[in-house]
Amino acid sequence: MTDAVVIGAGPAGLMAAEVLGQAGLSVTVAEAMPSVGRKFLMAGKSGLNITKAEPSAAFLAAYGSQLPAALQKALDEFGPDQVINWAEGLGQSVFTGSTGRVFPTVMKASPLLRAWLARLSDLGVRLETRWRWNGWQGNNLIFETPLGLQRIQSKTTILATGGASWRRLGANGQWAVHLAQDVTPFQLTNMGFVVDWSDHMKPYLGTPVKSVALTARDQRSRGEFIISEQGIEGGGIYMVSRAMRDGATLTIDLKPDWSHDRVRSALSRSRGKSSLSNHLRKMLKFTPVQTALLSEFGRPLPDDLAPLIKALPITHLGPRPIDEAISTACSGMRFDALTDSLMIKHRPGVFCAGEMLDWEAPTGGYLITGCLATGALAGASAAAFIG
After folding, report:
1. Helices 276-284 & 260-267, crossing angle to 10 degrees?
2. Which CA distances in Å does 210 have to 34, 84, 193, 214, 236?
3. Which residues are within 8 A (CB) of 63 and not within 5 positions of it... i.e. 6 or more apart?
4. Which of 348, 356, 377 is CA-nearest to residue 154?
5. Shared domain check, 339 and 309
6. Per-block average pLDDT, block size 10, for the chain (387 residues)?
């Protein structure tokens, strides 16, 4: 018997374990992979974006127009300010970029994770790796471990088992078979899209596209994206992927800070013997990849290029496979199967947190803040349940 078992050692699970440990409870964290925080570390490879500093209304809008009460409560109690204070409390100074994104000064995830694990150790949290949860047997939690089958009875349980993307990092969605009545089918979000490039785009594979704006229905992004062999991916695409997934057309504004008239006026100047690509470079400061995109998706080019430059429609063949998505969404544990404290209604004492819940948010600090916030709420709710 232990006070609490946390299943999953990603940001949500580790935050729940921290809150439980601070409440003076005995805590065991069970992680199926050989090491903890694998997706957290992967997310930090290009700079760990821990949250977004912006007005509350704009921040919450990133999670959708109708927030479940439990998610609203979690974000109210553990929003951007609390995330910053938490990171600084672990000895990691942070800075806010020009877009409002907040990063550790060192930009890496590993120093933050090491400090976090040291704190959990000081709180007496027990960490077990290669422990794969295999449901319940009566009131016992069942785990497949290197030492064989283990049965644990706990006063409370936190499920933070992740979604169904990036299987190699541990999130495979297999936990859903144990809670089938409460789970909606997995969808993907924050994902790349397949593009069947023509041969003339081959020189640009791996090239980042910067200083553009992407729009899909009511979603707009000024983030950069990458031309990959498979298609388009990266932060700028992820910010509009929800609308694209639901069928909205993606358009790219290749000169987002210029009006139609300014673009039209610049291009109306005589180009003499210059090629169109040189004219675009001189008049609009186009990079080679911008010109290539205009040619790829705009031909046959009209006489008036301004409307096309301001809203270039991108033809794609749909999302990349779910296992390549950053996260899953509109899927997982339904909020109507949970109380506002994130407890499963038909399993008193069992709480859920993180990406396994039926919510979605773009990258850019929103996704990880949501995981930390729901982990904190689940941990506090579990401590109160025991109390």
Report:
1. 130
2. 37, 28, 18, 11, 9
3. 71, 75, 359, 360, 361, 366, 370
4. 348
5. no
6. 94 97 97 92 82 94 89 96 97 93 93 97 97 94 96 96 75 83 79 92 95 92 91 89 89 96 94 90 95 95 95 92 60 89 96 92 89 98 95
**Which residue, of 265, 280, 314, is where some domain finishes?**
314
**Which string of b and e fits 137-176 if b means at least 16 CB within 10 Å?**
eeeebbbeeeeeebebebebbbbbbbbbbbeebbbbbebb
Same domain, residue pair 45 and 114: yes
Whether 245 and 309 have beta carbons less than 8 Å apart is answered as no
Q: Are 352 and 378 in contact (CB under 8 A)?
A: yes
Q: Which helix (H) or strand (E) holds 315?
A: none
* pTM > 0.85: no
Is residue 186 within 8 Å of residue 173, measured between CB atoms? yes
Domain boundary among 280, 314, 348: 314
What backbone torsions phi and psi does residue 118 show, to the nearest 5 degrees? -65, -40
Residues 158 and 306 in one domain: no
Q: Are residues 343 and 201 in the same domain?
A: no
Q: Is the dihedral angle over the CA atoms 170, 172, 176, 178 positive or is it negative?
A: negative
In eight-state DSSP terms, residue 300 is S
- Number of Cβ within a 10 Å radius of residue 48: 25
**Does 322 map to a domain?**
no
Instruction: Report the 3 state secondary structure along 3-16.
Output: EEEEECCCHHHHHH
Per-residue pLDDT, 327: 58
Instruction: List residues bridging with 132 in a β-sheet.
Output: 144
Sheet strands side by side (includes 193-194): 193-194, 231-233, 225-227, 207-209
Does 172 lie in the same domain as 212? no
The pLDDT assigned to 114 comes to 96
Q: Are 290 and 355 within one domain?
A: no
Interhelix angle 110-122/11-22, nearest 10 degrees: 30
Considering the domain boundaries, does residue 323 fall inside one?
no
What are the residues whose beta carbons fall under 8 Å from the beta carbon of 64, sequence distance 6 or more?
Answer: 359, 360
Domain residue limits at 226: 193-314
Please indicate, yes or no, whether residues 252 and 346 belong to a single structural domain of this protein: no
Tokens of 12: 């949500």
* Claim to verify: residue 254 and residue 343 sit in the same structural domain: no
- The answer as to whether 132 is a domain residue is yes
**Phi, psi (5° rounding) for residue 136?**
-115, 155
